[in-house]
Specification:
This protein is an all-beta fold. It contains no helices and 14 strands. The protein has strands at 2-6, 9-11, 17-24, 30-34, 49-52, 58-66, 72-81, 85-89, 94-95, 101-106, 110-116, 130-133, 139-146, 156-162.
């Protein structure tokens, strides 16, 4: 049978999602799920839907589908654990007044951003994986990475520090010059 398997997903540790296999053009098939290609490891319920709980950073589940005539097809799905990362440019987070900083989320399905104190330059970007901000004062940005099933990973933060502008100080030495 031809197979259509859905379920590649990013989920938070301890959360569950579904993997679904559909046969195309053949009815009354049997389904066997495993974590090892080529052999059914047991303990995984049979059927066209599998409740997936990732057991490692990347979990691979295989499905063996057998038609009533004995024909066999294999396919697989991947389940990834959400382990978000947050990067910032400039790396140290120090910018001059009027400059911008770029923050980027990695390793999650989607993101939520917030700023303390509130930063109007964040408006409209609060669900993007890359945000560009121009705060007017020191600001802490918080990112929460989410799985494809909307679970939440732990928040990550980065601080953007506004450097004070230089104040020139001019001195003359000697203080008094007499020229004729």
């Amino acid at each position: 049978p031809d197979l259509e398997v859905r379920g590649d997903t990013i989920v938070c540790e301890g959360s569950k999602t579904n993997a679904v296999v559909r046969t195309l053009g053949v009815d009354d098939c049997t389904y066997e799920w495993s974590r090892t290609y080529g052999s059914v490891t047991g303990g995984i319920p049979a059927g066209d839907t599998l409740r997936v709980v990732p057991y490692a950073d990347t979990s691979v589940y295989f499905v063996r589908v057998t038609s009533p005539q004995g024909c066999v097809a294999w396919d697989s799905i991947h389940a990834y654990l959400v382990k978000p990362q947050l990067t910032m440019m400039p790396e140290d987070g120090r910018i001059c007044p009027g400059q911008t900083a770029t923050l980027q989320g990695h390793m999650a399905d989607h993101y939520t951003w917030s700023a303390s104190p509130a930063d109007p330059t964040l408006a409209g970007q609060d669900s993007a994986d890359v945000i560009i901000v121009a705060p007017t004062r020191n600001t802490v940005y918080t990112m929460i990475g989410h799985g494809s099933n909307d679970c939440d990973a732990l928040p990550l933060t980065k601080t953007v520090t506004i450097l004070p502008p230089p104040i020139p100080r001019v001195s003359v030495d000697p203080e008094f010059v007499d020229t004729d």
